[in-house]
Amino acid sequence: MTAVGKGIDRLDARAKVTGKAQYAAEVPVANVVHAVIVTSNQAAAKIAAIDARAAEHAPGVLTVLTSANAPKLPGAKAKTGPVDRVLQLLQEAESPYNDCPIAVVVADTLERARAAAELVQVSYTPGGVQTELRERLGHAYAPKTAGPREPADSSRGDVAAGLEAAFVQVDATYTTTNQHHNPMEMHGLTAVWQGQQSLTVYDTSQGIFGVRKKLAAVFGLAESNVRVISRYVGGGFGCKGSPWSHLALCAMAAQVTGRPVRLVLTRQQMFSLVGYRPRTIQRVVLGADAKGKLTAVRHDVISETSRLDEFSEPSALQTRMLYACPNIATTHRLVRLDVPTPTFTRAPGEATGTFALEVALDELATALQLDPVELRLRNYAERDPGEDKPWSSKELRQCYQQAAQRFGWAARRAAPGSHRDGKLLVGWGMATATYPARQSAASAVARIDREGRVLVQAGTQDIGTGTYTIMAQIAADALGLPVERVRFELGDTTLPETPISGGSQTASSTGSAVQAAARELKKKLLALGAPLRGQELGLKELDALLAKMSEPELRAEARTEEKAERKRYSSHSFGAQFAEVKIDPDLRQIRVTRCVSAFAAGKILNPKTARSQYIGGMVWGIGLALLEHTARDPRTGRVVTRDLADYHVPVHADIPELEVILVDERDPYVNEVGAKGLGEIGITGIAAAIANAVHHATGKRVRDLPITLDKLI
Ligand code: MOS
User: Fold this and answer.
1) Ligand 1: which atom is nearest the Cα of residue 206?
2) For residue 89, which of 59, 116, 119, 69 has the smallest C-alpha distance?
3) pLDDT tens digits, residue range 496-513?
4) Which of 182, 229, 327, 410 has the fewest CB atoms within 10 Å around its CB?
């Protein structure tokens, strides 16, 4: 009986639904006081004057920090790595973007801190605010990288010659808009100093080791004197991947007041203080011969970043590898605006990039009068054309086939508007999904005590994805013990170091370390004399041996990283997304009525949590396609859709039946556990599938997200 591959329930589910699971801002800490951030209401402005006297004298207030009295921090501007951001920590009297931190009020209760925050008076010296991407295209520049690591540009073959030789061409520009992550649990923390040199932070984080590094740098502490704990995270999606200003502001408030301090962002502050998905303008040029074989591909991306820092949405990366074509060129450019710094947002790059590329392919299929699936099969990449490497595995063909069959794609009539349901226009669209399979170095420890209880530990995070559960499953199988025997502990920087829970790499990275540590422990148990039945340890005999053991426990540690052999291959997850929309011909109201998607992501560790990840991504893709849009007032740079009433996310009534097919895929190279990672692929391709379905229903090609009904009039 193996645990991996079984759809067991989340091991943390009971703690979460009964309220036993304590989140960062509800960890009980004696003597705690509350901080509230006061934010600006202007961008590109200097602060002329700030009057905190009324706030300071308000009931219960301990202190009000502004640029006038905030401690000067040695590492206030420190950048500690490629996913780290420049913070705004009251070091200057300025407001580079609207809703920027300009004061912190600390009081004995949250209510009193909020009331006092209202009393802070600010006047500004305005600058010229520029937040419109389209108006600043002349200032676009080439960033150092696209995403944290990839080169901004790529070029292979001769695109101009490829276009010259083409029988048909598509040349179109696609745009995507701002999205804000908005996990149910807002960012929040509790900061506790032990003296002046040692800091403990209870945070909600996708990367506790990055938070530790950042806080150590900002406050000039040894990393070993900073401890970050994050046991439960109420959703991440990228915003909790980097340390943001409020973390250091909360620690600063705790340092100044000498009290433990708690700080939770308001829902409104989630729209300015913790990043967002930047807008993109993407030009895609495709050339193909009469049979539909691509002769040239160009993908040029412009996205926005702040004046303070650089984040480049890597929307053209998948274009380098997804289809076979001898001539491919891609570029990424950035425009600096008076906005906060954008950041990773679920499938950064691929979510927006597959929209442009996969709609362009649909336009090519229309021009060639070729079935969209057939067009993709004619350009199926048998090896990665960008890296010129073989795939470690690729079951994309199976994905197309199984999803198409299940969807009933064969019944599709090509002409737009040719399917009806009563008076409703019916459209069917499809697109390819893809996301890279990454692996970073990770460590874990496995231990077993005299009672036979197994404790496996790694300092990783469970951001709602099921890390607690799959790690216990991996450890149980590697040990040859039932999963009920295993407890997995995470979310503490005193545990072995693991990478950020981002980039869909936790299963592969931390999973490999957990497996290796558990295998080491199994060796020790065998050496102790435990009998082996198949792959499983004989429980009765093992328990008897452990009870007699002289040490209190047996323990094994392991560290794993990407193997040299793996680097010879290109590893990606793939999928096929099929969507049906129904559109009212009079009102132009768009409803997604059906999605069938098939994904191949290596070994599926737990089909239940895997399916949840896929459908979560697909739901967000429906939001990306039809609803989500952060609106900024160009006069002030202020977000005007600052809550979940104005910022529309899909609700249950918007979500139809989502069918997910888990395509069997064996990958001997990708990593020890054979899992490619699947947290992000669900949101890729889906917006294009919906846009393509809208075209199929109406004949109208919408190239600007979100597809709202006004764009169909
Ligand atoms: Mo993901 S955007 O790397 O949390």
Assistant:
1) 4
2) 69
3) 999 999 999 999 999 999
4) 410
